[in-house]
Every structure is written in C-alpha cells, then in structure tokens.
Amino acid sequence: MWKKSKVTDQTATGQGGPSEAEQEEEKKAGIKKRSKVPGVMITQFIEVLPEGKSTPDFLRKPIALTIQEGKLAIFKANVCGDPKPEVTWGRAKGDMSDTETFQKRYDEATGEYTLEIHRVSGEEADTYKCYAINEYGKAICTAALNVIEVGFKKKKAMEQLEDIGRGRVNQNFVRPCVRPSFVLGSVDPAEFRKLLRKRKGVDKEEAVKEPGEIDERFWEIIMSADRKDYERICAEFGVKDFRVMLKKLSEKKKERQEEQAQYIETINNLKHIDIKGVGIASFEFDLELKDLSSRIFLYKDGVMIPYSDEEEMKHSLKTVGKKLIFSVRDLKAEDAGLYQVDVEEVNLFSTDFKIPTVDFIVKIQEVKAKEREDAMFECVLSQPCPRIKWMGKNATLEEGEKYTITVSEDKLIHRLLIKDCSQLDKGIYSAAAGIKTCSAWLIVEADSDPASHGKKKTRKTTQAGGTGLDLGKLAQEQQEKLAKERQEQIDAANKARAEEERLAREALLAPPLPDTGDGDSGEGGDSGEGKDTGDGKNKSESGSNKSKDGGKSVGEMKDSEKEGDDKKNKKSTDDSDKGKGSSNNGIDPNANGEGDGDSKGRKGRTGPLIPDTVIDAEKERDDKYKKSTDVSDKGKDPNGQSGTGETKEYTDASGKRSECTRQGPLLKDTVIDPGVQFVSGLSNVHALIGQPAELMCKLSNDNCEGTWYRDSKKLTADDGHIMSRDGANHKLVINRCQEEDSGKYRFEADGRKTEAMLNVKDPPRFDPDDLSAFSQPVIVKVGNSTTFKLPFVGREPMKIQWYRKGEELLDDNTTKIEKSFTQSRLLLSKCQRKDTGEIKIKLKNEHGTMEAISRLIVLDKPTAPQGPVEVLESTASCIHIKWRAPKDDGGCPVINYNLERQQVGRNTWKKLGDIPGVPEYKDNDVEHGRKYCYRIRVVTEEGVSEMMETDDLTAGTLAFPSSPAPPKVASAFNNCINLTWSTPTDTGESRILGYNLEKRKKGSNLWSPVNPTDEPIQEKKRAVTDVVAGNEYEFRVYAINVSGLSEPSSPSEFIFAKDPKNPPGKVEDLKVADTSYTAISLSWNKPTEEVGVQDEAKGYFIEVRQAECIDWTRCNVTPIILTTFTVKSLKAMAMYWIRVIAINDGGEGVAQDLDNYILAMPPPVRPCFTDNKMKSFMVVRAGNSVRILLNFEASPWPEVTWLKDDVPLLKRVNISNSESSSQLLITSSERSDSGIYTIVVKNLVGQESFSVEVRVTDDPKPPGPVELEENVPGTVTVIWEPSPDEKRDDHLHYSVSKRDSTKGSWSTVADRLFNNKFTACNIMPGREYHFRVYAKNDMGMSAPSESPTWGSERRKDTFVVNMPAYKTCDLRTAPAFLVPLRQHTAPKGYECYMSCAIKGNPKPRVTWYRNNISLNTNTNYLITNICGVCSLLILRVTPKDWGEYNIQIESALGRAESSTKLTVRE
C-alpha cells in the first residue's frame, strides 16, 4: 500500500506543514485560528485576549520561489500583532547557521522582514518557514524554494544512482526487499539504459497528500460559488468524494456565518468577477454592516492590495447604497488570481479570476447594411475559446430574437448576427476575448425607396469587411500551427531528457568491479517480456538476450499484490535439466515487467504493473497467509537454491562471467492476493414515487456474494426488494418506490463496500387522460360562464396558481378559484371576448413544478370592417372597391359581407345582398358621373357586425395622378444611364398602370421619349441606353392610371454619359487654423490623384461629433470647393472630433480625421484687464447703487472671484460674469459696504487681480456746540463737540470760518482739521468775532455750528493817559506744549495732519522726527509753525510712514518734547 504522511497544517498549495513535534506542541499550547491570508496557521495561547491585544498574523506572507542556481533568493514578509511579534526563520531540512549564505534583515520604515539566500544551489532547495510569536500566540507560514540547476551535475547523478543501488529511490516509492547485486563500479554500459528507464518517474519527489485532503484554495472558491458551479470546481481541483465535500462545506459555511455575524447584518446578491468592458473587470455584492466604521480589506492571492473610491485607480471600490462594486482597470495577464474581500479579520467573499491567453487573428470589421437587412460580424481567435463577450453600445449582447451568436466546432471562429437592422442598431460593436478586444462600426443605410418604408424586405446577410478571407481556412491553419507547437514542445522535452540521460551515462560509466553484494532474484525491466515455461527455461519474446536464470521476471505489482521473500538461486551449468540460472545482477534484461509463466513456488501475474510498496514481511506472513519458511537453519530455500554464504555466477551483456558472494540471510517471497475489488461502484439515483429504481455495481470476481443495506439496516428479499446477481454484476431493484425507500444504500462484499443515495421524490403530477381532456380548448359564448378543473397528485404542501394570458388570476367578481388536496377548479363567469387566450395551471411543491395549458375561446359578434376603402377602379360603368377584414372576427370565420348602396342625393339605401367572405366588390350597376356611398357589414355564425360607411365615390370621373418626383440617377456609364423614381403621392383613386420616360440633351429644347408611349414602363426604374458618350442629359417621367397621363415630373439633374469615376483619396495636411468658444477653423490640402485608384476631388464634406457621442454630424449640406472651413455653433469648452471627406462623381472618399480631439476654446491667454483707465477709488452716497464693471481677456474662460477686505462677499452683492467682463452691483448701498473690493481672474495659464476702494457715505451732520477760549493774548481757541458721524467716517474733517465786525463776509481760516479745536490768531481787540465750524467728508459739507460772539466794539472816549508806575517785567518763558500731539490712525492713500500748540519766549526752534530721524529737510512732509501752532502734513499715507513721530522745541531757556504714533490701516 502507499504510505502517506498526514498533513495537519493547511498551508498554501505546494508548501509543507509543521512537524509532528510542532503539532503536538500546538495542540497543548492553545487554540487554532484561521488567518485572513491563505496558508497561514495561527495558534492562540489563551482563550480570551485582553482588550486591544491581538495574536500575530501575516499581512504579507513569503511566496514560493523558483530560481536559477547562483542567483539571489529573497523571501519577504509583513506581520502585525499587539504586542509587536518577534519574527524568526527556519527550514524543514538542514540548518541556517551559515551567515554568509543566509542573511536576515528588517526594514523599520516599511516593517518588512527579509530572508536573503545568496548564491543558491541545490543544497538550499527546501521548504522555509517564517514564525511570528508574541505572548498571546504565534503564526506560521511556509514557502518552497525550487532551484533550477544549470548543466550536468556529476556528483548529484552519482548520489542518485547510489540511492538506486541501495533501494532508496524515494521515501514514498520503495520496492520490498529489493537489493540489486551491483555497486557503482560494476555497472555495465549495456545495463545502464535499463537503469535509466527504471529511474524514470522516480528521481523527482512529489508531495503526497493525505487521502481526502483538499487544497485550501478550493474551499475559498467554493464557499462563495453558486451550486451550479460545484461540479466544475470539483473537477478542476480533483475532488471526487462529493458527499464528504458537501458535509465539510456545510461545516465551513456554518463557521464562516458565525464569524461574519460579528460584523455584518446581511450579505447577498454575490456576483463573481467578470470582464465588464474594455480593460475592466468587476465583482459586486450587497452588504449591510453592523458598524459602519468597520474596515474593508481587499486581497489578491493572499496579498493585501490598496484600493480607492476614485474610478481612475487600478483597484477601486464604488458604493451605491448597500451595493459594493470592486473594479480592476487596465487589465493585464498578472491580474488573474484569487480575490478576497474581508471585513476586519473575517472573510466575506472570494472569487477566482482567470484570464485566457487568447488574441485575435482576424478582427471584426466595419459592416454596412441597409434597413431591414441582417448584418454579421465575425472574428478568428488564436486559441480555442468556447465563448467570447459581444458588446454593442457598451451593453452586453445575449442570444435572443435580435442577436444570434455562433461558434465553430474548433471554437476559433465566432460570429454575431444582428437581425432586421434599423437605425437604432447602428453604432460601435465590440468583441472581447479575455483582455483582448476589437471594435468596428455597424452603419445602417436608410431605405431610399419611400414606397417600401415600413414594409418587411427579404432578409440578406451582409458579411463583414469584404476582404475575401476564407475564415475556415485560417482557422484550420491556426489549428495546425497549435498542434505543431505542441508537438515541438514535446519533442524538445524528449530531446532534453535524452541528452540528460546521455550525459549521465557517459559520466557514470566506469570499468566493472567484482560483485560483492548478495544476488537476489531478478526483476523485469521495461523492454522485454519474460516468460517462465516451468521447465527451467526462462525465455524473452522481445528482448535481445535470453535470461539464463530460472528466476521469475518481476514487474511492477498492483496495490493488492505483495511479493514475499526472494528465493535464492543456485548456480547451475545445465539450465535445461535443472531449470535454474544466475541472478544476472538482479535485473532481467529481456523482461518487460509482465510474467505469464507458472514457475514453481510463484504465482503468475497478469495486468498492469504498479510501483512496489514496502511491506512488513513478518506481519504479512502472520496476519494474511500464516506462512513462514526458516531459511537460516539449512541455508537453502524450499526449492533447493543456495542459502547464506552461497556464491552465485552471472553473465553480463558482454558474455563475461562474474561471481559474487551473497551476504546475510535471505527472505522468503510472500504471495499477496489482491482480494475482491469494485470495478464500478454505486451511483446516486433519483426516482419518482411509484416508479421503479435500480442500484447496480460490479465486482472484480464473478463468484463473490454480497449484502445490501439501507441506512445500516440489512435488506432481505421479503422487504419488497429484488436482489439479483449476474456474474460480477449485482443489482437491487425497487419496483414501486415509496417515501420510506429514500436513504443511503450500501453494498458490501469481502470486506469492501460502496455507497449511494436514493432520493424518492413526489412532485406534482397529472393523470394523462385528465391532462388530455384539460388541454382541449373551451368554447363559450360571450356573457356565459365556464369552468376549468384538473385533478392532481403530489406531496403537500402544494402551491396552486392559475394564469390567463400570462397574468396570474386572483379571486374577484368574475373569477373564483377552488383548491383541494386532489384537484383545483377555476370558475370564470360573465366571460368577455377579451378573455380569449391561454389558461394555465401551475403546481409547485418542494420536489418540482408541473404546468398544464388549455385555451379559452369566447365567441361574440365580429367588429366592423376596417378602412380606408381603396378604389381599385372607377369608370363610367363600374366602381371596384376593396376594404380590410375586421380586426376581430368574434372567434368565428367570416361567412359573408353584407353591402348596401345609396346614391348621393337620395334618402333610400339599396340592398346589394351578401357576397362571399372576400373583402372586395365590383359594382357594375352605376351611372356615369353619379356619386355613391356604401355600407358594409360582416356576417358570421355569431351575428352581424356594426356597419362601416364609405366616403362618396364618383363613377367615371377622370382623376389623374399627381406628378412623380424627379427621377434620380443611380449610375452612369458611357453607353447607359440607370434611373429610378418613386410613386406619385396621389394616384387618382386608382392604381398606377405604368410610366413614360423622356430625355433631353443639354442645350436642346426637344424632349424625346425613351420608351414607346403604348408600352408603359411597369417598374420604377429604367436603363437608358440611347445616349452618346460625353453628352449631358436630363430626364422627366409621367405616371399613367386609368384616367390617363399625369403632369410631367420636374427634370432630373444633368448627368454626363460617362463611366463612373473612382472616389478621391484622403485630404492631406488637415490641421486647425484657429479656435474660439463657438467655432473651429480648419484647413487642408487636396488629395493626390492616382490613375485608376483615386480621382480628383470636386468638393468636401466636414463632419463633427462630440467626444461622448458616436454619431457624426455633417456641417455642410452641399459639398464645398474651398480647402478651408469654419465649424460654427459649437459648445464652449467641449471636446470635438472632426474629419473631412473628399467627394466627386465617383462617390465619397475615405474620411481624414484629426489626430486628436479639439477643445472649443481660443488659444490660451493669461488673464489681463483691458480698461486703460480703471478707477481704484469710488465714493457713493448711502442708498445709491454701487456698480463696478471691469473688462478683461483670458482663455480659457477664467474663474472670477470677488473679495471684500480679503473675505468672500455677502449674498446681497450681485455678481454678473461674461466671457470678457465682470460686474459687481449693490442695488442699495449702506455704510457697511465700504471697503476694498478685489477681483481675482484665474485660469490655467495664470491669474490677475485688481482692487477698488469703495466708500459709502452721506452728507455729514454738523458738529456740536462751539466754545471760545483765549489762552494766548491775540488768539482765540475755538473748541467744538465732534460730529455724530466722526466715529463712522474716518475721512471726516472740519473747516472753520471767521467773520469780524469790520467785515461783512466770512473767510475760511482753517480747513481739513481732524481734531476738535483750532486757535485763531491776529485777534484784534475792540472787534467782535464770529466763528462757524463745518463738518466735511468725501460727500460734502454739513450745516455750520455757530460760536458765541467774541469781543466788543469800544466807543471812542477822551483819551486820558495815566502813567502808572510799573516795574520792568521779564517776559521770557521756557519752551512748553500747550496742546501735545495725539495718536493718529490713517487709511492707506489718505492724508494725515498732525498738530500741536507751543509757547516760549524767545521763540523756540522746532524740529520734527520720525523714528529718531529728522524730517525738517524731507520734502515729502509739509511742516508749518504759525503763531505757536506747529503742524505736519503727509499728503498720501503709505505703509512706509508707519512709526513714532516726535517734535522737539528748544530755546536758551530749556527744551520740551512731545511724541505720537501713526498707524497705517490697509
């Protein structure tokens, strides 16, 4: 038997698992967990993890490598876990102590652990393990390293051959007790070929799976697959035991549902990954999460891949409600693999994406078809493919009434047939095979004949391309090419294998050495067929030499056959007498692995040979055969052959005899009987209740009895079962199956068994007689009732549904449904004609569905005939009319039509009687010129219909047809011009009898007939042959009916009688001359002329389409002659494709497209303002409107933004933008609207901005009360209360006017005062002074505030001088400030006025400073000192004026200083 080690660690496919010690340790250590990365085993050390802690896991596991020797092998892994796990590396065999070869690294930036193996060789080929361990658990994964050795390795070949000599070819492929009697030095060249054949299939070790073990990838795929795909997936992975698989699948699904319940509410509508469009694949499902913050991960082949919600990314996730759609764009071959979606650590969905390696040899080509015709696309693939995806207008096409999809037998030719083409079908159609696609246009040409509009034409399939390629021949050549490639691959593999054997043979052959090993019985090779005749002679039928030993030719055994201890051969010189020979190195060169003799002491073998298996000889002898032979007592076997220490002689291929001494005791051969086997087992059976069922199997032995069981209970013939045996065939028959017969049936024979399930179903069923009666149509008259009844049988519960014309019937006033366990009844009352149609009953239970169909026919009176009435003939003696049959005949055929006639002008109707059921009547009893009206009724068995009354018809009136349309030229040649025309719109109430055609040469006034006038043209086309080559002709046509000729049609266009020209070629040097937002200007050169290929172009058509559209729009109705054109009325900033088509008398040429799409926009221009004089300051009275209009130019259209004081505008501000200007409008301004308004114009090229200061103000209010003070003799200080508007208007200032008693006028003594006081000088005593103070701003001046009168007039009295006595007074005073400087805040761009009052005698010297720098000599400042009032004026404040200002007054008596700070506001 085959011995296989049990794999307990379910790692990735092709990777090994942990050792038995590791398994035992894990069982004791903790709990096994599933990782979200396939191939990773996690062991948790404790039952409950602390909050926030986790066991180690792999985010990215190392993958298996196949690498050439001498290269660098790198394994990479990323792990996670809290606390951070420790990562170590190991290998299944051998150590990793060599630090030069094995180097371990860790990258802190990426968190990646790396194992590097330098200069790999065959010794490093092994299974490597990566361990991640922390205090809560550990994670293990494995990866295999396969090394491709370059060249022939003598050392390795010697070791392999040595292993063969020692019986250690493969640990899972070892023959029992076979020890060849040769060593390396004694290998004969002739024998080496047999050794190579013997080694075939043995050198390579293959991983052996435990019976029943299934690849983990299989479970990931099948748990997300539909049940209909189970069989395909099982066949792909080699799973045969469906019963065990379904049981385990149910357990795994239950485990997954429990895990998913932690995070999700529902998941459904799973759709597996499929290619949806050009280069796009997607899969989707509906998902409802318990916690919306749960993370969703996407894996491909166990490796986490990033994704985004942007559709332009490689991997994207789109969420539409509960639906999640994962997409993969820009598909490549490496995108194939297993995709998995996880929520946190729980797997939700897995789908396997396979991309076939196929391409198009012949792509689909453009098809032109006329309306109501069929069109076909076809292509040829490079590899057989059962199905490709066809798409039309970005929608997937399926087989149906409109489309027919066919595939050739070799699966290389694929065709799409589009039936009954219409204008809606035109567009781009695509074929997709894997990631390869090809597209082509379907052009549907409108029917040029208006008479056939809406009428069905004869179908005619239009083939694609018109290249004349034989697709069948191409497919056959591709098949031969594929077969040739496969054969070349096989030949190359055979050649490489033969070369390797030759090199191995040359390297290993050495001079023969004496044989010191034991000689055992020979074993049959591959090339001969040994035959033991039983008389001591062993012959070979196909070998080159005859075997001289009497030993048995041993081949490969079946699993059930065992070879016992080998018997020793005794040397003999007379083979014919004793039937004994030498062992011949333990190999029979003439045997082919089959022995058919009956040698003494051995059992003959038949059938195919299989690899030998290690057998415990003692156990086999004791348990099976109880047969043992003591070969150590006498030194001989039962046949008298030599025992221990015997020397035996053999002859090699060259005839040289050698001797070898056998060492050690010999083991006796053991004959193993394979026993009874199943040639074919039981199969699952589905049977209907009451029907027979049969279970059958076949054994390998005809004389073996067996036992039948059902659900582990033994069956007997008394149970109603028929058990029979026909040789090796065993059969169980159940005549009438019942529900209790369902179960698991088992058949046992000689310790072997086979099982199968019998499922007895009880679906709904009808009795054939009842069904036949139900199927008969039921006929009932309108207004009556009818009943449908049908008995049935089947398991309850039963769902019963009745349908009428496809719609389910429910109980209502006219419908009643009765149901019982054995029948159902439908009662229809007051039936109407509209109830006519199909009646269906549908029964359904858990075992199946059954339907039965009948038909209800409700009879009623017919409807009236259908108009309009067509006058076939109207002459002086008859009126021939025709009408249409009634829309509904009431369920009975039309018997007659009843006609009545009334002559117009009379009140009576004349009965014409009944006519047969043909809707046509010819009335011969008419008078010329009279008008008649007819009434027509339909007569059936159910009654007479309503009447249809015709219009007034005139007998014998001449009604000529109208003029036909001008004839059209279909084609023209030197000797013939083909014309077509259409039927006139008015036929004159009679049919057209024919047409007359006339022609006229250009320059002539004479029309000549084309056809004889008495032979009208019956068709609407004519080939005019009476023409002269090179002349130009025009044509006209007459229509003829019973009344006569119509007026002639308008003449056709002039046409030359000459052979048609070839269409022109493509235009050259097509380019864009200029663009704007609404127009694009083009220019091009004429196409070149080639004699016989393409002629001169006479005009050009320009066509345009938007990028998102597929239909081209022609810009000019008639061809243009110039080679320039401007496409107008375009949508700004839209993308357009433009092409130019040259045309001449030969037709249209091939279109020339622009190389790229064009944007409808002018050339790029950086934004700039176009106004030369733009105001940067505005003053607006409060309540008035504010309007700022700025013109600019920019391309493309810029983005315009308005800001107020660098913040967005309020909603009350209206902004109007156009292509070249922008306007800001405030309809009713307020003081709060004051500020700096900035416009920013920005586009792709750059940006530009401009600021306008807007000041919203009003006439100021007057200042408060005015007071007068005298601080210095001869001066008066005017002090007033500030205006109420001073706080709201920083531009408010004051003006002071003065009037004295000697003058009657007012004079301004001070202006632009920003403080609330002013000192007036030169005040003369004895005069009265009056002062007025005005408040002023940018808008105007307020009313004045009057001051009290200062001083009084003195009357002139007599002057008396009293000379008082006085002392000399010292009037000198030290410098001092009467009024110091105050703080100032001024807006940028405005003026600033600083002032102060000083005193001092003698007059002090005044010096101004800014930031300790003297300003007295700075011309930017106006400095004055009038009567002790010192002032500093800054005309236009800038940010540079910001700082601290000082004024120093100095005299001989002292020094004083005052300072202030100026703040500039932006």
Short description:
The protein has 1466 residues and is mainly β. Strands 1, 2, 4, 6, 9 and 10 form a six-stranded mixed beta sheet that branches. Strands 54, 55, 57, 58, 59 and 60 form a six-stranded antiparallel beta sheet that branches.
The count of β-strands is: 102
Overall, the morphology is extended
How far apart the termini lie comes to 99 Å
The Cα radius of gyration reads 56 Å
Helix content: under 10%
Q: What's the oligomerization state?
A: single chain
Q: How much of the sequence is in beta strands?
A: 35-45%
Main beta-sheet strand count, sense and barrel state: 6 strands, mixed
Provide the residue-averaged pLDDT. Answer: 78
Give the count of helical stretches: 10
Derived from helix and strand composition plus strand pairing, the structural class reads mainly beta
Task: Give the uncertain stretches in residue-range form.
Answer: 1-22, 164-209, 513-671
